[in-house]
Amino acid sequence: MKQRLRKYSAILVISIKDAINFRAELLLWTVIDAMPLVAILALWLRAFESAPDIGGFTRATIVSYYLVGYIFQDMTGAHFEETSIREIRDGSIAKYLLKPFSLQIGLVVRELGWRLMTFLVTGIPFMLLLVMFAPNVLKLPTPGQLLILLYILVFAYLLDCLYSLFIVAMGFVIEEAESLSHLKWMLGWLFSGSMLPFEMMPGWLAKLSSVLPFQFRYYIPVEIYLGKIEGFAIVRALAMQMIWVAVLSSALVLIWNRNLKRFTAVGS
């Protein structure tokens, strides 16, 4: 057990060092990812010129919703599937499969280094700027909210890693499996609340979004932060999140093992 922990710790350290070397690229991608956010906020601010309240949101709360959601989404994303699929295609993935540790856990830990650096390089400065120049937009969570948010965001990150691992698992049997990354992005955008808060969605879409796991990266943590989800509703959300983690983890084990048996490495 200690040996495995040392191995995963070494993977994390290497990942952080790589992220430090590419910190300028991290900053660039953060700016690129922020462009749609700027456009969305501009549209909403224009809409609030003619109405003080839309769907239970004021101008201040809708701005908070998207800015805080952007931070949470940036902290919990996983993007290792395309690199892993290229390694499957050229056969270099075999060297990891032969090592005495879990490739799945290794990928999750390796991505964690990039998430930590993203938070340090972009997340913290972004939040400090908001606190300094827009104190009414970003408020500090209470200690209780902070603990709940940390819990939800950790497992939101794990859920996003599970989606990516499903795509990697398909890479063992489908040559162009990286195209599934676009499906992952589309489903997340549609059902997470990053397109629209659930309160403003059509009824059928809001109901469907409220039972799918994508909501835990955006809508649920933001609503808890805003104080719109409290008490038993938080307990129910935490329970639902854990159920999704258990279901998807079990399904991943079955699919990963089945597809891995059909994989043959050719190359380096």
TrEMBL record:
InterPro entries given in the database record: ABC-2_transporter-like (IPR010390)
Alphabetical UniProt keywords: Membrane, Transmembrane, Transmembrane helix
Name of the protein in its database record: ABC transporter permease
Keyword field contains Chaperone: no
TM helices/strands, residue ranges: 26-48, 54-72, 112-134, 146-174, 186-206, 233-256
Database matches in PANTHER family: SLR1174 PROTEIN, SLR1174 PROTEIN-RELATED
One Pfam family it belongs to: ABC2_membrane_6
